Amino acid sequence: MTKRKMFQGASHIIFQNAERLRNNMTSAETLLWGYLKGNQLGVRFRRQHPISNYIADFYCHKHKLIIELDGSIHLLPEVYKNDIERQHHLETLGIRVLRFSNEQIFINIHTVLTTIQAALQTPPSGGRGALAKRIIPCLDVKDGRTVKGVNFVDLRDAGDPVELAWQYSQQGADELVFLDITATHERRKTMVELVKAVARQINIPFTIGGGINEIADADILLNAGADKISINSAAVRNPDFIDELASAFGKQFVVVAVDTKLIDGTNLVHLNGGRIATQFETEDWIREAEERGAGEILLTSMDHDGTKGGFDNSLLKRINDKITIPLIASGGAGNVQHFIDVFEKTNVDAALAASVFHYGEILIPSLKEELRKHNIEVRL
Asked: CA–CA separation, 119 vs 236, rounded Å?
């Protein structure tokens, strides 16, 4: 797979230069990075990040925010002119830019941090606000390959997860979710190397899940490049784990995935990739997960999953009306109308699908265009 268009069009040369610069930070960059690294401001920043024909000193995917540090050379008229042209170009991509001089970093770092925090609390403009609905391809990973089945069984190969991630990034997906669907069942940890590979290739946020049952697991994955982590079985078996993750990393990094199936008229939570039924009623469990610190719920209807018959809108609406955190709908997408229906009938924050994207049955740009025609706000 070519890297020519990765990171919003950055060429392989820009990518190589960014890797070189990461190992040669200036004193000002080193000082600021000490405050930005490790999610200290509640979000993840990346250093020397390639975007288009440029390399951003620091970049936050979640808020589409660049932080640039300028030395004395940036006072020269020709350099200053180039900086302005560059900033205008980045703004056309929907990216905001904060600029600070090296002197500001050394003399008044706390004012700099206050300015950054204020920018993080302001939603980006241009259709990227909190009301925009998100389209999220999901990549179920087994033995390093993307797979897809029906009702969680009869899995078939759907391609290389890293290559698919890159393609979705180029198509305009808002986020990605990677689920190592056999990690818990086979007692394996989610592959850190996959996370690193994906982080190198895409410029959109992504969530990783599967086999995460300790704080150390989440810490490794977030440091490897994931923007959020997803927990399912571990949360049900140890609900305190949700509290611990929220306390350690912040609620915005914690996604609680819930696999539900209708049993004798009651929606029950299932574990281990849908293999084990519990006695937890789905609605009760989701409310508890929110109270404990979940920042987002990923709800998959096992009855609808892979059937392409549409989302479970009645269940989704009941739950979305009772919680205040974002709800991602999963299971059943088969055509564009299903996405229109789930947003119009349930008002969920995001819709997730797999096979219709993996096999080219629905293209994300076309899907977003149809959603806009129905007055459903999506990110441009």
From this structure: 36
pLDDT at 129: 38
Q: What are phi and psi of 176, to 5 degrees?
A: -135, 150
* Phi/psi of residue 337, nearest 5 degrees: -60, -30
**In the block, residue with structure tokens 């096979």:** 355
Residues annotated as catalytic are: 140, 259
pLDDT reported for residue 93: 67
Q: List CB contacts of 143: < 8 A, sequence separation 6 or more.
A: 182
CB 231, CB 297: distance < 8 Å: no
SS3 string, 280-310, reads: EEHHHHHHHHHHHCCCEEEEEECCCCCCCCC
Instruction: Identify the CA nearest to 135 among candidates 321, 354, 334.
Output: 354
Q: For the CA atoms of 230, 42, 194, 32, what is the dihedral angle to 10 degrees? A: -170
Residue 22's pLDDT is 53
Rounded Cα distance, 334 and 365, in Å = 16
As to burial, measured by CB atoms within 10 angstroms (0-12 exposed, 13-18 middle, 19+ buried), residue 261 is buried
pTM of the model: 0.67
- Cα separation, 115 vs 374, whole angstroms: 37
Q: What angle do CA 234, 240, 242 make, to 5 degrees?
A: 65
Short-list 352, 354, 1, CA closest to 163: 1
Which of 113-127, 230-244, 317-331, 354-368 shows the lowest per-residue confidence on average (mean pLDDT)? 113-127
Read off the pLDDT of residues 28-75 as tens digits, 9 standing for 90 and up. 999 999 999 888 898 888 888 777 667 788 988 778 899 999 888 877
5 has a pLDDT exceeding 60? no
User: Is the CB of residue 299 less than 8 Å from the CB of residue 266?
Assistant: no
Task: Please state whether 186 falls in left (phi above 0), alpha (psi between -120 and 50) or beta.
Answer: alpha
